[in-house]
Amino acid sequence: MSEFFEELSEILELEDEIVTPEFAFGDKMDSLAVVSTIVLVDEQFNVLLDGNELVACKTVQDVLDLIKSKG
Amino acid sequence: MSSQIVGIISCLPKRRIQNDFFEANIDSKTVHDIAKMAGVETRYWASESETTADLCIHAAQQLGDKVTGGISDCDAVIFVTQTPDYVLPGSSFVAHRQLGLPSDCTCLDINAGCSGYVLGLSLAHDLISGGRYKKVLLLAGDTISKTLSVEDRSTAMIFGDAGTATLITASETTQKPKFIIGSDSSGIDSLKIENGQFRSAVKTNDKDDYLYMDGASVFNFTLKSIPKLIKDLAKLDNKEPTDFAYVLMHQANAFMLKHIAKKAKLNPDQVPINIQDFGNTSSATLPLLLCSDVREQIQGPNQPYALLGFGVGFSWAAVSMEIGNVQCAETVFL
What positions does the domain Carrier occupy (chain A) (predicted)? Predict the structure, then answer.
């Protein structure tokens, strides 16, 4: 899971910060981050997220819950 | 009766557009991020007076000079484009006139994008295997740049223009190609130009006049469909995906193509990528790959290829076929 958090932090272009489940995306989840996250989740969990569902996620925990609901 | 590709020429307009061109309308960090993700470094855009038909006809003229027997006795010309010269007649007639093709030649137009080249190959093969046609000229290309808003970050930097000509003839020795073609029309609104035809003919001077792309849903469709399509195609032809000498994929987005290749368990060497040089040229990406990245290989002995087109519609079209002994495979400029 730590690898997922690290790669997600890179996608969100966070400097010196690793996301936690509580991390709120704010305006960080732009269209490029959405497609990168879809690929990351597909690679690590073999789950294909829907772009619109991902955009609706407010926190990292929401994404984890979404993955769980589809896994 | 089977069919074979005997020659392919791709034609690009001379106007080369590099990424810094877009910084006039999109902030430079976003330009950098999009370039990194999509993988496009340069693309060629037609001038105001150059059309898709000009590019394809120029390619066809060069092709006619280079293949044995020329193209003047073609009995069908298929023109695949979404950017025709006129609402009517179809661009196949424009090509028919300019190329001086005979009156018993059938002219067909197909409105298709990224799946279009394989759709055209499929139609050409079926015409030939039906027995009434022996020599089919397939023209495929687009000048999507004319439909773009340079302010739209989801489309402006990705697309390039190109026109291609492929000659397909009857062959008794080539193995029959195997096709998989499908459509998912739930994607109609995800990749679309709203205005300018007959549903809403009047331009409204806003985003509806330009190409619209819902990048995330197109991306989703592709990841959902294409790895499975590669597996299904291999299975249809009693192969493993790694049996193909090359798996040529429509050049939509470098990041996505690399992920699909990995997901389908292909070797990176099987999957050439040239989007960095030309951008996404719609139905022209597959012939452009054939004329650049594997041009020497297709002039050698027959090898098994998979060609996969996917996009607008949504749609997909894939073929498992032998390609080899091609007499000419070149990229020229208009």
Answer: 6-67
Question: Cβ contacts of residue B69 below 8 Å, gap of 6+?
Answer: none
Residue ranges, CATH 3.40.47.10, chain B: 2-171, 178-323
**β-strand partners of B141:** B163
Q: Report which of A14, A53, A58 is spatially closest to residue A67, judged by C-alpha positions.
A: A53
pLDDT tens, B183-192? 999 999 999 9
Q: With contacts defined as CB-CB under 8 Å, which chain A residues touch B219? A: 35, 38, 51
To the nearest whole Å, the CA of A68 is away from the closest chain B CA by 18
Q: What is B2-171's CATH number?
A: 3.40.47.10
Residue found under tokens 């001038």: B47
3-class DSSP string for A38-58: HHHHHHHHCCCCCHHHHHHCC
Interchain CB contact of B258 with A (< 8 Å): no
- Compute the average pLDDT of residues B105-133: 98
Neighbouring-strand partners of residue B170: B3
- CATH 3.40.47.10 applies to domain B178-323: yes
Predicted confidence (pLDDT) per residue in B277-296, tens digit: 999 999 999 999 999 999 99
**Alpha-carbon gap, residue B238 to B232, rounded angstroms:** 10
* Domain extent for A46: 2-70
